[in-house]
Write a structure and sequence with these properties.
The protein is of the alpha+beta class. It has 10 helices and 4 strands; from the N terminus they run αααβααβααβαβαα. The protein has a domain of about 160 residues: NADH Oxidase (3-Layer(aba) Sandwich). The chain is about 55% helix and about 10% strand. The two termini are about 45 Å apart. The relative contact order is 0.16. This is Nitroreductase family protein. Belongs to the nitroreductase family.
Length: about 250
């Protein structure tokens, strides 16, 4: 019996070692600090050029990679993306501007005077990553998970937001500048873009990420943020201190 016990222990030792080696080999090569530094590097960059040092094929690869792993509630995957570049991107912004102009002018001459220049600067960038939510997927999820049906609108926003920040960060790490826009705030713009990009009626425009070569050196300064004393609380602190005192 002792001989069998020794053999079992040896087998267990080998299996444990192999498992540990496998965990070590499969561990991510990027540390948490590296990942946070990459996320911190992302900025809203304006005045973008109509050129891109990064090939369209590489941008496509990044977007598809993000879509392959970005989370969504119940893995429903409602996010859809259209990549618009070059001349198509110029036409894209012509549609935005022409559709928005009468609405913005109706809000006042000062509004149009300010916004027209901003819209023209967006038009001058190289491309846009257009983020949609397929409402057909969201509606189906509401039926499948009825008890959470009232939350799936928010879940869809969460999913698109996570895709946006991942793509945005990746593009800036590739050396591009980018800024996130929400022209769906003017309802006729969304309908015009859906027609232009030939997407299904069930798609909802959530945002579009303009990108292109940066006009100046990348700004790494973090905009002022509220102090942690206002934004963070460690609920376990009191109980932890109690345990230490004991």
């Amino acid at each position: 019996m002792p001989r069998y016990s020794t053999l079992i222990n040896i087998i267990l030792f080998i299996l444990t070692t192999l498992l540990a080696l496998n965990i070590k080999m499969s561990a991510p090569k990027v540390s948490a600090n590296d990942w946070l530094a990459a996320a911190k590097y992302r900025r809203s960059v304006y005045g973008l050029k109509n050129t891109s040092k990064v090939p369209d094929s590489r941008v496509q690869e990044i977007v598809q990679e993000v879509l392959s792993f970005a989370p969504s509630s119940y893995n429903t995957q409602p996010v859809r993306v259209t990549l618009v570049t070059g001349e198509k991107h110029t036409q894209f912004w012509d549609i935005v501007i022409n559709t928005a102009e009468p609405i913005l002018k109706a809000a006042g001459a000062a509004v149009w005077d300010k916004m027209s220049g901003i819209l023209q600067s967006h038009k001058a960038s190289y491309g846009s990553v257009v983020f949609w939510e397929d409402s057909a997927v969201t509606d189906e999820a509401k039926k499948t998970h009825a008890s959470y049906a009232h939350l799936f609108e928010s879940f869809g926003e969460h999913a698109t937001g996570m895709n946006q920040i991942l793509v945005w960060t990746a593009l800036e790490l590739e050396g591009l500048g980018a800024n996130l826009q929400h022209m769906n705030g003017i309802p006729p713009v969304e309908e015009a873009l859906k027609k232009f990009l030939d997407v299904p009626a069930s798609y909802k425009l959530r945002a579009h990420l303009n990108y292109g070569d940066e006009p100046t050196a990348h700004n790494t300064a973090v905009p002022p943020k509220r102090p942690a004393t206002e934004t963070f609380k460690l609920d376990g602190l009191v109980s932890l201190m109690y345990m230490i005192d004991q």
